[in-house]
Design brief:
Blueprint: H1 2-13, E1 17-20, E2 34-38, E3 42-43, E4 59-63, E5 70-71, H2 73-79, E6 88-90, E7 112-114, E8 135-137, E9 159-161, E10 182-184, E11 206-207, E12 209-211, H3 221-224, E13 231-236, E14 258-264, H4 272-281, E15 290-294, E16 315-319, E17 338-342, E18 349-350, E19 358-359, E20 364-368, E21 375-376, E22 381-382, E23 388-392, E24 410-414, E25 431-437, E26 444-445, E27 452-458, E28 468-469, E29 476-483, E30 501-508
Parallel strand pairs: 1-2, 2-4, 3-5, 4-6, 6-7, 7-8, 8-9, 9-10, 10-11, 12-13, 13-14, 14-15, 15-16, 16-17, 17-20, 18-21, 19-22, 20-23, 23-24, 24-25, 25-27, 26-28, 27-29, 29-30
């Protein structure tokens, strides 16, 4: 059926669409409207010989998975200006397009311009005279530092993507893009604030990142005017919210279609109570599915964090909340599947109240950079669905992990020198990673076939696996990696009684 549909599409498109394979452009019809072609390392002008016959060409679209393609400069200078009816133009794969030729500014019918991953440093002003332009793609233009001041002239622009650019600021005129539907600013590391009056973009449905201005830029109240936002939203620089009641003006509680929300503070706080009040006012809609709170400077989380009304949250990340001495009770988040806790400086005990009593539905659980964490008390809590457990850089953690993890598939313990007294019973374990430890695994039995085992920076004459009985009844271990360990004694034959085949074995900087 797929082949029949494909054949039908070719018949319907007929002579109006042409895909250039190799150098057969001489076969092109003068009636062709849509041209696509496979790029090579270097696309010379003669590759397109005869294409100038297609005076009604609407689409010029290179197709490539290459990252280092180059194009003859004459394609920009001489060929493209002949297609005055062009609607769709892409120069996306070309790594030598460091600037656009003035002739591009004469393509007045252009609707779609894709410059993704080109090394442009500056978008020329003449692009802003392309009044019919609806889509402008600049993703991964890592050298691009600014947009033209007149970009607000593009009244018909619907989609503007600036993901992973070096943009330092946006022109004030951007708020005049009254029809803008999508503005992607993710991974713009140099951007710290947005122009004033961003709330004028009332048709905006997708805004990935909002930067709260300190004095001159957009205040958080501008978010409240953007009533149609949906999808993902990251709010940066919340330390610039000077009045706690201003947090309520963002109207996050009304943004039902925002499903992924990240709230982020930067720098040290001077008033932890103020930050808590701000977060209290930033309560999201109950339909949010993914929530991250980064750099929060309060001493405790607001009450809404553990509210049973958030029945759809599946992902929660709390990071860099270094003044919090307690974690919020999350047992009422009935849909929570992934929990990540990072960089809590004052937490010394993880209590059962974090997960609630009974069976937790969490599938992925990660702890990182918990400097003072000493004890994990899991009394009364079970993790029947937990598949991935990561504990990284928790130097004071000791004692035992939860005793039975029946669904666990992957376990990573990284730089937790006091923890390795016992590991959980995990009949479905497939991958184990032990990094930078000096203690051995004790009294642990694995009954399933493990596919991957990695041991790195083990500093002891004993094996880290000496207490493990029967790593797998399987006769095959997919991969063993040993990095920077003091002795080959870490692998004792009794730990692998059935092992016949190791498919991949890597040993790096072993000090025998």
């Amino acid at each position: 059926m797929h082949d029949l549909i494909n054949d039908l599409a070719k018949v319907v498109s007929g002579e109006f669409s042409f895909t250039l394979v190799g150098n057969y452009s001489s076969k092109i019809s003068g009636r062709v409207r849509h041209l696509s072609y496979a790029t090579t390392d270097y696309d010379a002008l003669d590759k397109f010989e005869g294409i100038d016959k297609a005076q009604v060409l609407r689409t010029f679209l290179p197709l490539s998975h290459r990252r280092s393609s180059r194009v003859d400069s004459k394609v920009q200078h001489d060929l493209l200006p002949t297609f005055m009816r062009l609607r769709v133009l892409s120069l996306a794969p070309y790594q030598n397009v460091v600037q656009l030729h003035d002739s591009i500014g004469r393509l007045k019918h252009l609707r779609y311009l894709d410059l993704t991953a080109t090394p442009l440093k500056k978008l020329p002003e003449f692009v802003c005279s392309l009044y019919n332009l609806q889509t402008l793609l600049l993703d991964s233009c890592m050298c691009l530092v600014e947009l033209p001041n007149s970009i607000g002239n593009l009244k018909n622009l619907l989609f503007l993507r600036l993901h992973w650019t070096a943009i330092q600021s946006l022109p004030e005129s951007i708020v005049n893009l009254s029809n803008l539907h999508t503005l992607v600013l993710s991974e713009c590391k140099n951007l710290t604030e947005l122009p004033t009056n961003m709330g004028k973009l009332t048709k905006l449905e997708r805004l990935t990142d909002f930067f709260v201005g300190k004095q001159g830029g957009s205040g958080i109240e501008e978010l409240g005017k953007l009533k149609n936002l949906q999808g993902e939203l990251r709010i940066w620089n919340l330390q610039n919210v000077f009045l706690s009641q201003d947090g309520e003006t963002a109207k996050l509680l009304d943004k039902q279609r925002v499903k992924e929300l990240e709230l982020s503070w930067a720098g040290d706080t001077e008033d932890s109570q103020h930050e808590r009040r701000v977060l209290e006012k930033l309560k999201p809609h109950k339909d949010v599915k993914r929530l991250s709170i980064i750099g929060f400077g309060g001493t405790r989380f607001p009450d809404w964090m553990g509210s049973s009304s958030f029945t759809k949250i599946v992902f929660l990340k709390l990071k860099g909340c270094k003044y919090c001495a307690s974690l919020p009770p999350l047992g009422q988040l009935v849909s929570l599947k992934e929990l990540r806790l990072e960089a809590f400086d004052l937490i010394d005990v993880v209590c059962p109240e974090l997960f609630g009593n009974g069976d937790s539905k969490i599938r992925i659980l990660s702890f990182e950079d918990m400097k003072e964490w000493r004890e994990w008390n899991s009394d009364g809590v079970t993790f029947p669905l937990l598949q991935l457990l990561q504990i990284r850089r928790c130097p004071e953690l000791r004692g035992a992990l939860p005793g039975h993890l029946p669904a666990l598939e992957e376990l990573c313990i990284d730089r937790c020198p006091l923890l390795m007294t016992s590991l959980p019973r995990a009949p479905t374990i497939r991958q184990m990673e032990l990094f930078d430890t000096s203690r051995s695994v004790q009294q642990t039995k694995y009954e399933s076939g493990m596919l991957s085992l990695m041991v790195q920076k083990f500093h002891s004459q004993n094996s880290p696996l000496q207490g493990i009985e029967h790593i797998g009844v399987s006769t095959t271990l997919g991969k063993i990696e040993v990095h920077c360990c003091d002795s080959l004694k870490l692998f004792q034959p009794k730990s692998f009684p059935n092992l016949e085949i190791v498919e991949n074995c890597y040993i790096y900087l072993l000090f025998c």
